[in-house]
Amino acid sequence: MADKKVEAITSMEEDFAQWYTDVVVKADLTGYTSVKGFMVLKPAGYAIWELIQKQLDAKFKETGVENVYLPMLIPEGLLQKEKDHVEGFAPEVAWVTHGGLNELQEKLCVRPTSETLFCDFYQKDITSYRDLPKVYNQWCSVVRWEKETRPFLRSREFLWQEGHTAHATAEEAQERTIQMLNVYADFCEKVLAIPVVKGQKTEKEKFAGAVATYTIEALMHDGKALQSGTSHNFGDGFAQAFGVQFTDKDNQLKHVHQTSWGVTTRLIGAIIMVHGDNNGLKLPPMVAPTQVMIVPIQQKKEGVLEKAEELRAKLANIARVKVDDSDKSPGFKFAECEMRGIPLRVEVGPRDIENNQCVLVRRDTGEKISISMDELEAKVEELLVTIQKDMLEAARAHRDSHTYTAKNWDEFVDIINNKPGFIKAMWCGETECEENIKAETGASTRCMPFEQEQLSDTCVCCGKPAKKMVYFGRAY
């Protein structure tokens, strides 16, 4: 029975995309709905998002962020005010044309993002330098009419947070832009156990209407990149379009400088594709809804369930812990624990009780450890910390061993076709070269990393003098 459950997953080596879908479905994270491209976040999936939200929100608040909530509908006229922005989102916008039975005088779009609403709000709310900075964030959902959807990675409605800040000076705005990118990078590494590359997007890849876009890029198990969070410096472009002005200390009227930054439920897709294996999910302890599952063996025998419950009560103060007292076989329960990515399993049966011991099984390595029940709490606490650290190290080792350097075009083509992963290469800075690389190989510029290296003097594509070292990759 246990084998049957595991067999139901396509192996990632055989078909990574199918493996991903199988894991999402069989770990019961999402469900399909009657509305094409929209998904149900089931309890197991939503619980991961709740843990992401709770921990990230706390990190935001440490930097002075306050939460607000703005409407989900944007009047067409408001959206049209920032030309680049509306052009960037036009193909993905969903429109509301009727209120009840009456046609609306002005169409309303369902927010694909909320820059325009925040600008409208700030225009009314900011009058003086004393009103600044405004460091606001909202947790909400947005709708983008994607052509092809995949759970967590691309769906027509997804959950996210979007920070929108307003500052008196360009320097403050830039500082906040980088500060939030660093919050994301830190969160991905310490909480999600996902190592990231931090850098700036090229002109072609930046957010519509931004002066500069910064990104964290993660590498999935199949060697594809995933943009895992972005932070944008808007300068005063939006403020000029929307008339967001303030009277400064020198009594002069000035435009505010703005930023915007966000991460989405796509992070759950990243967790699956960075850590998962052919037995299912592997959740880092910090975002595992159940960190420890106690599996009673021969649970109908006297005292076994009672002992399992006693152990649960002991561990409840240090971990999110449950007892699987269902009537399934132990083998099935073990496979289910693995499928759901539960970091630590505790096995306890009649013989264990006699010997005052139990068996701990790590999800990340499969290692089994027999311990005395007296040391259970200390050992579980220690192991959860170790698993979190080891998962980050394993992901970093995978990323580093799948990051390659290409000094000329032949090397670039060879690597992209034969060695999935990141490619570091020099670039002349011309959009034309960037577009040629993508057209020829399917690889896009992921970012110009903050940590620059001089790999050669010439562009990997055209041979002209190089300006930047860039991470390239095929991406989700």
Task: Give your account of this protein's structure.
The longest helix has 26 residues, at 376-401. The protein has 15 helices and 23 strands. Helices cover 36% and strands 27% of the residues. α3 (43-62) packs across α7. It has 476 residues and is of the alpha+beta class. An 11-stranded mixed sheet has the order 3-7-8-14-11-10-9-22-23-21-20, sandwiched between helices. Strands 16-15-17-18-19 form a 5-stranded mixed sheet, sandwiched between helices. A 3-stranded antiparallel sheet has the order 4-6-5. The chain starts with a helix and ends with a strand.
Mean pLDDT: 96
What is the overall shape? Answer: globular
What's the N-to-C terminus distance? 35 Å
Beta-strand content estimate: 25-35%
Tally of contiguous helical segments: 15
Helical percent range?
25-40%
Count the E strands. Answer: 23
For the largest beta-sheet, the strand count, sense and barrel status come to:
11 strands, mixed
The rounded Rg comes to 25 Å
Q: How do the strands line up in the largest sheet? A: 3-7-8-14-11-10-9-22-23-21-20
Give the class from helix and strand content and strand pairing.
Answer: alpha+beta
| Uncertain parts | 1-5
In quaternary terms, these chains amount to single chain
